[in-house]
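agent> fetching stored inputs for the nickel (II) ion docking request
agent> found them:
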Amino acid sequence: MADLQGTIVTWLGHATVHIATAKGTSILIDPFIEQNPKFPKNYKLPAKIDLILATHGHGDHIADLLEVAKKHDSTVVGMVELIGWAQSKGVKNAIGMNLGGSWKHDDVTVSMVEARHSSGISDGNQTVYGGEPIGFVVTIQNGPVLYHAGDTCAFLDMQLIRDLYHPQLAMLPIGDHYTMGPKGAVIAAKYLGVKSVLPIHYGTFPVLTGTPEELSQLLDGSGIEVKAISPGESLR
Ligand code: NI
Ligand code: MN
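agent> prediction call returned; pasting tokens
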């Protein structure tokens, strides 16, 4: 439907997304599971999770990072400081990166791009510096280019993400309050030059008031499609 050339993108509520490539690489972004009110009740994570991509240190993005990484023997990819913290907590396989960098794993190239947000890690009664918050571009060989924005406002330099990577599908937060809302997401989608948007990071908590309906209305006539699906459903 979104013409993802055999890649399957499954939304797991909030900013949590699973990507399975046609070749079988399994990627989990921002694991927020146990305390995620929108995590699909009957969904079971695949046994094989090759990569976990973490956009920033907030609990609603990494609450289950350590446990899932250890249980599934996954490689965690994130900003160097966030990765240093994960390693200090016992994560064995980890790749620390920084803005502008790309790293290849089998049929997948992961690129780290800007996000405008914050990234403190709540650790006990301390807040640990997690480095800059980021977004990810996932370029799949013989497949689509996908962009997960993490938590961010809309920003002009999203045009650089378009020029560098040419994503076709953007996973954009639309809930407002902690990130952009639908109005910002319209501009983001246009700057990114994407064909479609998978709205995320809305409806999880009462303050996240942005809706896919509002986004669809605002994008009407733009040629950009809003792929509003329910948690547990997939684009393919
Ligand atoms: Ni956040
Ligand atoms: Mn968040």
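agent> quick read of the result: The radius of gyration is 16 Å.
agent> awaiting further instructions
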